[in-house]
Here is the input.
Amino acid sequence: MFRGEDNKENYKKMIELRAGLTSAKAAICIYGSSSVVKALAEFELAGSEIKTPAQERAFMAVLTAMRADVGLSPEGEALTAILLGGAPATKE
Here is the structure.
């Protein structure tokens, strides 16, 4: 599948990124409230990408739940602008 030194390095980086992502998800499952875990599960079920409006909403729901857990207001529109930019996804 991966040939050459560049591809080996890319493969190693991909493995490291996946390990970090898995570790972060595990920490959320251990320390997150039920609302955060549920929001993360819904994002995962939506494909765990941010390509469609539904996926954007699911991702933002995770962040909103996390902010609520630490006593911060949602700031939905501001967070969306910061994290996703001004142009929303166009495909549903």
Q: What stands out?
A: The chain has two domains: 1-31, 33-92. Residues 4-31 form the longest helix (28 residues). The radius of gyration is 16 Å.
